[in-house]
Sequence to fold (348 residues):
Amino acid sequence: MSRLMVKELEESILKRKLLRWKLITIYLSMTLVLTVLASTAVGPIYIPPEKTIRVFYEALVGAPHLDKRYAEIILQIRLPRVLMGILVGAILSVAGAVMQGLFRNPLADPYVLGVSSGASFGAALSMTFLPMMLGVYTTPLAAFLGGATAIFLVYNIVRLGGGFRTETMLLAGISVAYLFSAMLSVVIWLATRDSHLILLWVMGGLSAADWVKVEVTAPIMAVGIALAYMHSRDLNALLLGEENAQSLGVNVGRVEKTLPLIISLVTSGAVAFSGAIGFVGLMMPHLMRGIVGPDHRILIPISALAGGIFLAWADCLARCLSEIPVGVITALSGVPFFIYLLRRSRRI
Fold:
């Protein structure tokens, strides 16, 4: 086969791949829009789709609402909650995609460096011992500081070990997670009056979402996705191994130091308002990788869309099931996911 034929074949394969990526992106984007419309209609009080669309139209054009009761439910209660689920789901999914690529492990998730345990401990402390100086935002701030403290400890443990390596960082993250989990258990044991509130936060939920929290979380999502996408080529190179990545001009040491820190801080900002919602950052990137492949240039945005859609519908189901924490829904969905992984590994 001549070089010209090989080049034409490669260009044809690339065009088909790009077309497939565009179609999947368009499909998920349309699904996301439909998710917003449909999930705001579903709940203890069912709102017909035509009324939901009319409320959105009246809000967009600035017209007075004909049905103020439905408008209040949709615009002030359900819509902020749906958008919060989309934002948090997107952040966790992108963080999971980055961590899986960085550690070259499909079972890595956004909480691999102890962010979840640290944030849970910080939230528990604020509910039990700290004065509510910032009102309802005291607990989110304490959760963010707890997650940031966990990352700080991980990096210092790795530095004591003599150098940054992904294996050392992973072990340090597991150790710090166990440390904060133990301290969280002590707080729950001592806080008999507030233990129920602590457990609700640990399980994760979006029932307290409002427009202010959406406005705070939206820039976090934008920054997280932008920074992750900026490193997409580095992550692609790391899939070939550290030596090959270095030969391609990637500063492996810098990427392995800075990228986990950035992603963990972004994750801390997300879970500060939603609690420790599990499995989203593990499942969505893994499933999307099977659809679009391991190229992070498409995997990162597709994971963001899929994660937002998944968490919005999971919260919709939680809302209909007597307001159980959405983290329970995502955890239950993790069981069939792991069965799927087990069956797939046996076939390979």
The two ends are 32 Å apart (CA to CA).
